[in-house]
Amino acid sequence: MNSKIKEYFENKENRIKCGITGGTIALAVVIFTVMVFMEKNETPNNPTETVSQTESDTQTEEAAGYSFNAGDLYDMRLDAQTIEDYYMKSCGDQFNLYTIDEDGVLWGSGHNEYAQIGLGYADEEFHEKKSKIAEHVVHVDYSQKDFVVYLTEEGKLYGLGNDSTYMLLQHTEMPVEDLAYPTKRYVTSPALLLEDVSYARCGRDDVVALKKDGTVWTWGMIWNYQSTGYCITMPQQILTDVKMITGGWFNHAALKEDGTLWTWGYNFSGNCGTDKATMIETPVQVAEDVQRVWTGLLNYSAKEDDITDMEEFGNDYVDNTIIEKTDGTFYACGMGVGDKSVVLPQYYEVSELDTVCSSEFLPLDWDEEMLNRKQREYIERKESQSEEAVLARKNEALLEEIDKNYDMEKLKRKVPRFSEDDKINETYYNAIKTLDTTGFLPDGRYCFYIEQDGRTDVERFQEQRAQHYSPERVAAADVDGDGTAELLFFIEGTCVRDSAEYVYRYSEEKNAFELEFEYSAGCNYYQNGVIRAKPLYSGFIYQDDFWPYSVFQYDENKNEFVLTASVEEIPKAPENPDNFPEEYDKDGDGKVYIISQGESVKYLDEQEYLAWKKQIFWMPEMKIDWCELGSNKELLEEIDKNYDMEKLKRKVPRFSEDDKINEAYYNAIKTLDTTGFLPDGRYCFVVEPDGRTDVERFRKQLECAHGPIRIAVADADGDGTNELLILIDGVCMADLDEYVYRYSEEKNGFELEFGSTAGFDYYENGVIKASPLHSMYSDYQDGFWPYTIYQYDENKKEFVEKVSVDQITNVPINSDVFPKEYDKDSDGKVYIVGQGESVKYLDEQEYLAWKKQIFWMPEMKIDWCELGSNKELLEEIDKNYDMEKLKRKVPRFSEDDKINEAYYNAIKTLDTTGFLPDGRYCFWYYDEPENYLETKEKLGGFGIAVCDVDVDGKKEMLIGLRKELSEPYGVLIYRYNEEQRKFEVENGFSSRINFYNNGYVEEYWTMPNYDQPAFTIYQYNPALDTFEKMFWINGIEDVGIDDYFPTEQDLDGNGKGYIMSVDGKETYVDDAAYQKMMEQYIDLNKRIDVEWVDFFEPEDMTE
Prior knowledge:
The two termini are 57 Å apart. β16 (251-256) and β17 (261-266) form a beta hairpin. The longest helix is centred in the first third of the chain and has 20 residues, at 23-42. The strands form 12 sheets. The protein has a 7-stranded antiparallel sheet with strand order 57-56-55-54-53-52-58, with helices on one face. Strands 30-31-32-33-34-35 form a 6-stranded antiparallel sheet, with helices on one face. A 6-stranded antiparallel sheet has the order 41-42-43-44-45-46. The protein is 20% helix and 34% strand. It contains 18 helices and 59 strands.
């Protein structure tokens, strides 16, 4: 329990800020908090019943969290005049969030164990994306017991989620045997609960609704955490003439039109305002002359008469009721109220709780001035917690961190000095640093495109910087010809709008840099103060590599560059039949140049244009030495200088007979091998949150990658020319990619033809079979895995999706969705073939016939070459490896030589490289694959066994790994997949396991200070072809510690017992019951003796 408390407080913000009664109320809060955590995480997975499923839309979650810091007086809505003023547009906590947008659409996100967020199904995932639940919604409320109710414009009340205790009225015919751990039942699509409703609130396990006619209705369960309470299975009317109701964790309250207050529920600490009963099923009158009421979380200081936090969103922990009387005075009752110490009855695991509480409404001394002051304070606090304020504080902290760690000395070594004046240089360096760390230019503008949300903070800058085409560049040069240097910036960002070039002059008067010139990136500078600037777009098609440009001349009076001319070329081409000015084409070469200078326009032929151009650009062009920011230029230069290009050329296959093409090919591979950038400019690995893609980061990611980068050359698209194939096996699934690049003669570079998740099969007719990493099903048979077929399109010059294929099997998990009518051969398998909007369902024979039509050409064998690997060493090992010795050492796997070959090769691969049959590195927890041979010798290697441990009639290969020479680390079970001709992992266990010939596995795990057994029992599931966990056992004994050993349940009195957990529900069995139970599962006479062949000695299999 202690570890769970610790975990709870590490992962869930504790928003209770009680300032009174010392440890007593704090103890109550902690106990209840633990209880809520246990309910969230330890509710048994009893048989689950559901109502209908529906599909839902999704919307990206923009906010960064799922909890509300609820306010005090502001959220009490003291200015409310009608019931609609109490409608909630958002509610939730760290587990779930519900919001109603401005269009009246209700969205849900977070945990989905009870299908409570509108996805139409339940799962164990945390969903950051919002799911659309309903439209035309005006009010929503949520309970931490995983259900939500909402009210529509028509006055209809709906519910979704947990229905274990009748709160959603869909399982009313089923009894609740255990109030503490009810059978898990839930509703997957919104259920209509009540009509003509004006307001409704959730309790912990119940719902209370106010109808438009003033009647109050309730249903669900109220209990006291001692497994006693009461349930209402259908909506029950309990009051009339009511104008306001509240929802509370323990109790509810209703305010009648005549000002009387009525309460009911679990009156644990006098929170109902009476001491007449602990469990109040029928509402009782407890006050009069009341104009407002609140129940739920109320924490305040009795000494200061100061409310510090009022929870409006959902129901929370401590129980109170607070009222405002018609004369404007406030009263409260319940826990923490007054100064009277009371011993409460047994509460959860505490037999008696000594705390302060009151069943009388005691006055709170609030005057109007205090109310106004507190409301102002709350609004200010609310504004400080706004998204903009939080972002600003986060940005400030990030800037401080960057500033503290910024290496200014490195910058000074990197960029050229600007001036002989240290003061000017200081301003110059600071301007560059500002751009380098924040993205802001010297005149205060942001260097990248500002997106719709308006963000220009450091985090956004780092995100955009990670996606830019090239690093920001800086230079110092006298481009205006005034005898002093200017500061130049070159920005090539994430889109065309980001690509710009800037010239700044230094102003002594302002000790700052002022803008002289800006234009699209790609300017030419001349020594006579002229800039030739090219636009990004043009309306014509040009000849002879011409591109339009503008001429800017520095104006000393204006201290800026001014436009003096713009130049266009109009060629005589079919695209320009009506626009070509024939009369000006004196030399008849089909080209005329248009020179615009102010309002003057000239048309010049080739010779006239060249003469004009000579007059403008009469001084030489300047060479600008650009320095890259945010880059590791020095490291790249060092790598480039030492890179062994000749070794690369010997290592990888030639791409073409054309040396020019080969040069581009080798350079593309070199760039990938040294920097991680693919031929189309994308970074090959996942870009981490800090945005870094420098060589240092690339090397670290490469070290952590599952495998080296691989290169191949093959005619994958079937067009008669080779393509460059690249396979990335990175640090996570998002890095597992494969790419096909074609060579473009026009660009003398490589362009992307296709890219997707790695694991392609290539066919000679230009077809690629690509498989996803994940699937909506998990019960495939015969080694099947879903895939998509792509066909090369010659017109588009890329692979396009043609067909997607999936398999659905007739197993219990698919009982509601398996299309039996298409399973003509009754083998329990149907294949789903999707082609565009068409979907076909095929049985086995139909699928095989269809597949034969698609894959009518042979599969290509791709010879991959590994970059950055120890290939030469592996080749040396491979050449000298004694395969015959291996065959004599290990048992045969099969009578089929072909299968045996795969088996021997899998062991050889593990023995020489450390890679397991499924591609994982065997010593991932200890060191990198490059150091395998050293690690193997240090740790002792592995063991091999062949045995039918799952009792399915087929042998499996077992691989045993070690953490140290003396300690087993794990056992992996691999089955052979005949269709894919490889070994697949079936299960993984710790090394302390026993296999039994009835399909059971006994896996032992250690627990400190216990001599009793602690283990898990698994059973083989043939339908899923895997071992599934049934239960775990943890032995305990009476060691004389109070409240540790359940003596009252030790029926045989031998001081030994066992905690047994099935589907998350723990029960206690004594020693006699345990022995009898284990006889059902474990028979020592049926234990399988696994014979291991040790590779634990560092035996050398090479000669």
